Amino acid sequence: MSDFWQRAFIFPAVMLVFALLLWAVAGALPAALVFGTGMALRAFFHLRNLAALENWLAAPEKQPVPDGSGLWEDAFSQLNKMTQRYRKECEFNSRALQQMEQATSALPEGVAILDEADHIEWCNLLAENHFGLDCERDIGQQITYLARQPEFVNYLATRNFSEPLVLRDKRREGLVLSVKLIAYGNNKRLLISRDITQLERIEHMRRDFVANVSHELRTPLTVVNGFVETLHDMPNLENDMARRALQLMGEQTHRMKSLVDDLLTLSRLENDQNPLREEAVEIRSLMEEVFRQGQLLSDGKHLLQLRVESNANLLGCREELRSAFTNLLTNAIRYTPQHGEITLRWTEREGQPAFAVQDSGIGIAAQHIPRLTERFYRVDRSRSRETGGTGLGLAIVKHIAMRHQAKLEVTSEEGKGSTFALLFPVKRIALSQ
Ligand code: ADP
């Protein structure tokens, strides 16, 4: 028998023996009276401890666990240990939570936890500022109910969070946020917001500066170029050295003019105030125009082919598309040695319209490919210069692609050739009239 039951039965057993002895000595009635009184006292003792337990349970955090005696002493002591453990765990958890809250409020970014239906479960102070929330009041609310900008609502709805969203708050003039969602756990999402107002302002200033400098350089360059050409063409210029110097000056001013023109083109493409002028562009005639330009540039040195395999036309800006296609074809000609093959193609890939230029030229080593669209990034600086490159062509192509939601794909193998393709979204296909 366990210790508990031994201790539980010892009192009734003693009482019973005592009552039996009394019965033998004094008769049944006194024995029954003594046994009954003893058991009643025992029941009262248990009830008193039970009352103490109930009293404690009514407000356990305000009073210590009662002491109790006998069998109850053990039970109360276990309960006391359990309560102590529980209090320690609570303290530990609340300290950890406090530390996490302190850490997240020290973050330079707004952080909010959303459930699968975009309800706010928790947010830090910066997220409150960024989205105009009040953590106490708005927990459990749908975030799109509180931050209603259509771009933000769309971003959450499309569920494609690979790229951050740039959000301009129209209510608070000038505030620009970069917002990113990260999925984690069981359909939970972490909403991270970063204030990029200052960065945007600097970027704006940089763009304005480049645009202004390029614009200012244009007129003096045109004048110098004009004089150099006039002097070079003068019939009575007999000095060979002067003629050679003028020719070099002419080439360099021409190069500077190309640079300024490309910088101005880039500035125009980057300008937020310059939205895409959309029209239905007839691609066959555009491809033929670009192809003829390529033939002139190649001057019979390459085997040029034109393949228009799709009848799809595009919704977009003809001038910009012409510039992107020409840039890619011009590069193929410049980076393909004599007798090389170059194919200009308009086709469809899984229903998506695609422009591609394939060449059998010098190719590009894999490590350079991700950086090709950076301004002034060249694999071979001298070859680029010799062939009249500015280092801005692919940056221009990338911007035009972005404005048309197209993807620039580059596949290349050093020494074998390259393919530059522009993959347009299906929604850009122009319906034929
Ligand atoms: P660039 O004016 O120097 O040609 P781009 O921006 O047009 O500038 O191209 C960047 C670099 O990418 C070039 O300097 C060249 O090294 C590489 N490149 C572009 N197109 C090709 C191509 N078809 N074949 C090989 N290299 C190329």
Task: Please describe what this structure looks like.
- Helix 8 packs antiparallel against helix 9 (240-270), helix 9 packs parallel to helix 13 and helix 10 runs parallel beside helix 11.
- This protein has helices spanning 3-26, 28-58, 71-106, 125-131, 135-138, 143-146, 150-158, 197-232, 240-270, 283-298, 318-334, 381-386, 393-403, and strands spanning 110-114, 120-123, 165-168, 176-184, 188-195, 279-281, 303-308, 313-316, 341-349, 352-359, 407-413, 417-423, 429-430.
- A hairpin with a 3-residue loop joins strand 4 and strand 5 (188-195).
- It is rod-shaped, with a radius of gyration of 42 Å.
- Strands 2-1-5-4-3 form a five-stranded antiparallel β-sheet, sandwiched between helices.
- The chain has four domains: 3-95; 107-195, PAS domain (Beta-Lactamase); 199-270, Helix Hairpins (Orthogonal Bundle); 279-430, Heat Shock Protein 90 (2-Layer Sandwich), CATH 3.30.565.10.
- With 433 residues, it is α+β, with helices and mostly antiparallel strands.
- The mean pLDDT is 91.
- The protein is built from 13 helices and 13 strands.
- Residues 331-332, 335, 359, 361-362, 364, 372, 377-380, 384, 389-395, 418 line the site of adenosine-5'-diphosphate (ADP).
- Residues 331-332, 335, 359, 361-362, 364, 372, 377-380, 384, 389-395, 418 line the site of adenosine-5'-diphosphate.
Our Rg estimate from Cα atoms comes to 42 Å
Tally of contiguous helical segments? 13
What's the overall average pLDDT, rounded?
A: 91
In CATH, the topology of the largest domain is named Heat Shock Protein 90
* String of helices and strands: HHHEEHHHHEEEHHEHEEHEEHHEEE
The shape is rod-shaped
Q: Which kinds of small molecule does this entry bind, naming each only once?
A: adenosine-5'-diphosphate
Q: Helix content range of the residues, please?
A: 40-55%
Distance between the termini: 98 Å
